Amino acid sequence: MPDTAIDLPDWQTLQRALPGLTAKLDAYRQTFLQLEQIPPLTLVLCRCRMAQLHGLEAVSQDDLQAGVAQDKLANLGQWPSHDAFSDDERAALAFTEVYTMDPSAITDAHADAVKAAYGEAGLVALIHALGLFYAEIRTRLIWKTP
Amino acid sequence: MSKSRISMPDGFTPTGHVLRDSPIAHIPTAMEALVTLYPAVWFDGPLSPAELEMVRLRNAHAVGCVYCKAARYDIAREDGLDEDKVALISRATPDSDLSAREQLILAYTDAYLNDPESLAEDVKQALLAELGTEGVAHLAIALGIFNGTSRGAVAFGGMPEEDLPVIPMAVPV
């Protein structure tokens, strides 16, 4: 262990230490905000739900600015039954919950429901976006970054 | 083996590039960004190829991605990561056969995989002292990408049920 304590940085500070790689990661992340295959606002809902499942505050200022309906964010924990959510969004949120807990528990029925809503390309986009969200949420937890 | 949940896009022609020939071919903009990002994970940071491969394999075992567990990147082998070392990494609890630096890297990896809030402050201090902020950022980004791709591979289905023989690979560029 070091003799002298270092102030622990947050995740944003750490990323700034490696700007080249961070820029490429940001460029990859940005592609998911501009997809035709699955609405970006649906992906935001999935990220918020994943954050909830990690015990985090689900909604950030970025989420509000992204334009997700407030009643969806406020009732995200009740997505299976709340009428604010469409069947397509429910398919994506159900997939998100199982992915978060254990991707090997995903069934063909989970995947088929997402494909019925958003097509095969939509399922691919969702899976890759969830990988990014999962990494960001867990890294922020390690570095205690809101 | 279960059936893959995704077929390749209509008119798809294999390229020989492991990422371009994967389901992400359905979303070309994201594919091009990932094709740029993935080699940068290996080459645009201070951690060595052997250290990165250690993280990737530790993650692969935790996630249960059979393909990821079998893959061996050539640059990591050239950097000294042999199968004896891989066996050490695969143990449930890394022990003193690994260097202090390697144990710190695996402690971070295990915390991310199992319980991110469990990583003790003194371990974070030690990581920063050992790797510097650049090294810690490199570790965090690399682990996030390795974890996302292996969780994705499992989610896409079609994973073999038994372990595969070692598959030597080059980092796709």
What do you see in this structure?
The complex is a heterodimer of chains A (about 150) and B (about 170). By secondary structure, chain A is mostly helical. Chain A contains seven helices and no strands. Chain A has helices spanning about 10-15, 20-30, 40-55, 60-65, 70-75, 85-100, 110-140. In chain A, helix 3 packs across helix 6 (about 85-100) and helix 6 (about 85-100) packs across helix 7 (about 110-140). The mean pLDDT of chain A is about 90. Helix content of chain B is about 55%, strand content about 5%. Chain B is built from seven helices and two strands, in the order αααβααααβ. Chain B has helices spanning about 30-45, 50-65, 65-70, 75-80, 85-90, 100-115, 120-155; strands at about 70-75, 165-170. Chain B has a two-stranded parallel ribbon with strand order 1-2. The longest helix of chain B is centred in the last third of the chain and has 35 residues, at about 120-155. Chain B is mainly α and about 170 residues long. The interface between A and B is large, with 51 and 55 residues.
